[in-house]
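Quick question: what would this complex look like in 3D?
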Amino acid sequence: MSDIERIRQAERAWAEANKADLDEDARQPPRTDFGLALKPVYTPADLADQKFDYLTDLGLPGAFPFTRGNSARMYRATPWRIGQYAGFATARESNTLFKNLIAHGQTELSLAFDLPSQLGYDPDDPRAAGEVGRVGISLASLRDWETIFDGIPMDKVYVYSVSNAQAVVTIAMHLALARRQGADLAKLRGGMQNDVLKEYIARGNYIFPIEAGMRLAADTLLYCARHVPEYWTINVGGYHICEAGANTVHEGAYTLSIALAYLDQVQRLGVPVEKVASKVSFLMTPNHNRFFEDIAKFRACRRLWARLMVERYGITDPNCQVFRLYAHNGGSVLTRQQPETNITRSAIAAVVGALAGAQNICLRTMDECLGIPSEESQVIGIRSQQVVAYETGIANVVDPLGGSYYVEWLTTEYERRIREEIGKIDALGGMAAAIAGGTVQSVITHDALTLQRRIDAGEVVKVGLNKFQAAEDKAKGPRRYYRVDPTVEQTRRAEVAALRAERDNDAVRRALDNLRRTAERPAGVEANLMEPVMEAVLAYATMGEICGTLREVFGTYDKSMAA
Amino acid sequence: MERRIRVLIAKAGLDGHQAGIRLVAHALRDAGMEVIYLGLYNTVEQIVQAAIEENVDAVGLSSLCGAHMEVIPKVAAEMRANGLDDVVLIAGGVIPNKDIPALSAAGVDRVFKGGTPLAEITDYLTRAVGAKRARLAG
């Protein structure tokens, strides 16, 4: 009798001996967020049922299929980067904040911009009224970028920015200033979110039609591959898909499908995918309330991505096979009730990210349900990550959960289900087509509704919200949270007006004309928009002027199709 | 037969967070109401114009990016200026307690904060619209 057969026999005997107990358990078993019923215990027999093979399915860290991690030593070499997402209203205020966060041990800056900046409107645009500096830095021109990084060497600190629809402008600012600071672009590390597809289905900050968005994605990928090879040019936002309500299988599938869409776009331009594959990375959710699910989800994504690179593009370069992960826990799993409890939730999320082998981690802060994070709460986020990285010992051994029957079984389940969902997107003609048809939006809405009904029914527990509630007067939480200075909007309008008066407006006009002419040409490697945008940025053209020029050529996205 | 409750749901300004408001729209539909969802990036004028054209009983606004004190009172004022006094106005999202009295004074009938069960919103609208209709009939 084989070992597996003996285990199966033992399981049957165990089930018989505990029949009454297990029958009761089977009536309402715990389920994953995508509805899969979980057994009370997993054994090698479950892995045998999945035809699990150690060398094929796991292997060793730093080698195909990378299930156990992207590098041989992982955190024994250096811990993940600590990248708290931050930014106050003005470039000056944010410069001070960033210097303080670096002093506290933050190893990656993750820049948050206000909504006008993210949607390509200047602070003095009527559409920006009431929104200037509300949720992040008001970014209008290279001058603001200079202020943000005054005294911060961009080649010493890893800088990541959350720009999407207008990322082409932010990348140009980033590279222009890094070059001026004397950084060697061939070695410059950093990244940009620059994932426009998820804006249409989840995050909601889109400007141009999908086709133009895809052109900008390919242009930025190709330009950065040539000039800044170490730069994470696109960071696909599965995080936002998950926060919009998608379950973890859909989060994984749509994230990978979006990344494939960008690579396919580059391939359509006649460029081999190897040139850009390592520039596409992933932003996904490690949540405390799906502890093992999310660890398995990430391990599955890592394995599946490596396999897809081989199957779809024949990629053999390991650097182009690895799934680079920015793990960022969700704001939606926090509670407004007793916000200090959120510190615990986020600390556990850091453990999830660490056990899953993330390259960088951002924790939501306790006060995010009240306003944008205060500096004090950001420091708690940094400290929480430092405790996990330096005190717990999690960093001592690579992929410590590898080999757990449950985690391996769940990892394989995730891989199979995510692959199946990617197949459905392929059948619709890929992610851009699936979004244009509205399918993805419907699935996410259905998932979101299912989750909310489970929360309302108390099936999904949120401590302090639907269980263990405190009386309202005891549930107040932190008294000090960040408030925007009400005079910011006026100050910013004056600053942009001053810039327009001082700069060489002929140079701005020439640069914008050149940008328009390039945008009017068909998409292709010969009409890359990065070069003319760079020229405009260097002439101190504003975010609103550059995006306005592109709006005139490309038009805007028809919002009736949006999520 | 009494006509179904018609609700206009919208996001004003540049805030792109719509997971919550879309859930509310679904819950209202499931509760038998007719829902018109205007989507993202609406101006105050667009919202009030739609409320008039769609002849709605209630308007629901969502704000999660801190512009609620800029946008919501303007919608309330514009509704009054257009004679929509009998239309129930509700708001939801990330709205600090300290701003609620000012929103009420501006004409918002009820503010729902994050974590509110969907049934609480549908129940409230059913009652509030019913009460307004009874007043108008009386």
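Answer marked as accepted. The mean pLDDT of chain A is 95.
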